[in-house]
Amino acid sequence: MIQMNLPNPVMHALQRLNEAGFEAYVVGGCVRDSLLGKEPEDWDITTNALPTQTKAVFADQRTIETGISHGTVTVLYDGMPLEITTYRIDGEYTDGRRPDSITFSTSLREDLRRRDFTINALAYHPKEGVIDHFSGLADLDAGHICCVGDPHLRFTEDALRIARALRFSAALGFKIEKVTATAIHKLAPLLRKVSVERISTELKKLLCGKDARRVLLEFSDVLTVMLPELQPMMGLQQENPYHHLSVYEHTVETVAAVPATPLLRLTMLFHDVGKPNCYTRDLQGFDHFRGHPPISAAIAEQTLERLHFDRQTIHHVKKLILHHDDTLSITDKALKQLLNRMGPELAPLLVEVQKADVWGQHPDKRDERLIFLDSLKARLSELIEQNACYSVKGLAITGEDLLKIGYSAGPKVGNALQSLLDAVIDGSCPNEPNSLLKLAKEML
Ligand code: ATP
Ligand code: MG
What we know:
By secondary structure, the chain is of the alpha+beta class. It has helices at 8-19, 29-35, 51-57, 108-113, 136-142, 151-157, 160-172, 178-187, 196-208, 212-218, 220-226, 247-257, 262-270, 292-306, 311-322, 332-359, 366-385, 399-404, 411-426, 433-443, and strands at 24-27, 43-47, 62-67, 72-77, 80-86, 88-90, 102-104, 123-125, 129-131, 144-145, 175-176, 280-281, 287-288. Among the domains are: 8-142, Beta Polymerase, domain 2 (2-Layer Sandwich), CATH 3.30.460; 149-226, Orthogonal Bundle (Hydrophobic Seed Protein); 392-443, no CATH class. It is built from 20 helices and 13 strands. The longest helix is centred in the last third of the chain and has 28 residues, at 332-359. It is globular. The N and C termini lie far apart (84 Å). Adenosine-5'-triphosphate binds at residues 28-29, 41, 44, 115-116, 120, 158, 160-161.
């Protein structure tokens, strides 16, 4: 019998429900993740106790009525939030997203049947081991995403499951089983019924998955439903010495090459999205996409706004895309200017973006560029670590000091500080009060 490690509060919660005469199992994502040797993010419990009965069992703990009409009570058990949900059967689905009604059930099997994928339809009890009515263990072993029941029906009921399938496939590195995959390709347009918030959550997880590359290539048609903005990139060939892939294929390679954070992966997904708008072919037959970064940045902004991404992510993605094609030099002066332009948080990320962009280019051009960008990155970290001065704020004197030596208040102060900064970045003046004041006096 498989034994899983349950945190103490989870063990005790199961025990308490059992002692009160109810069935109770851990279920869903936490069972899947534990069996995969991963720390579950949250622990869900399924039980035949009704919500009011669950509340009575945990009367001495704080409970939150998270979704009491759906049967869910959150119990803060010794401070650990546990979602305890009554066995459920979902009623009819008419909006393609949520059941019109739900009924409570007395059967664990019924509850497992309503769950999306076999690997998510596993339950566990310390005395009974894993309860596996739908071959979830075999699929977990084989690395398969497979619907519980008829995929066509399950995706028509709730189209969010289409996005979840892609996400699990990318995150776990699991293949989507054939019948399930066929239904996904066929029913992808149903994703339009899913809220933008749910789409963006799944998209972030998909992009950060270890197998994002395969999923983005295999399900590009599904991605286009979520992000119609990407459509023009698909199949757009680029005939020039730097590229051997279509714009979309290149994009996917760069997504896979960049570190797996939502910010960087979204940046790569959109960095060339403006290329189709900027396409020209020269007399030698080479393709160019001059001026595409600002167009890509604008399309990324519109798209991420449509998907209700947060302000900061949108701002950072835009800025990284806008500068993704900048020519970077490794002199201290150029690196300080880069820090001034991008800030110490985004400057190192821009180097990651450029490295990923190189990974998606022609292999002949790759190694030399990557070696260069790595040494640039190393020098950039040194400058950041040394607190090198790259902004007016970092100067060893302030506007106040300039007023004291005879500057009159107004724009002259700002201009003088800027000139002093230029001199510091140039290396022609040390960032030290006496030297700066001396130079400021000369400029007065
Ligand atoms: P993660 O927590 O990593 O997002 P998860 O599988 O735990 O993954 P949750 O949204 O926490 O996902 O849902 C918990 C469980 O509820 C799932 O494992 C699955 O059994 C079931 N479930 C969630 N969403 C759906 C859905 N749209 N259709 C059917 N069952 C679902
Ligand atoms: Mg979960």
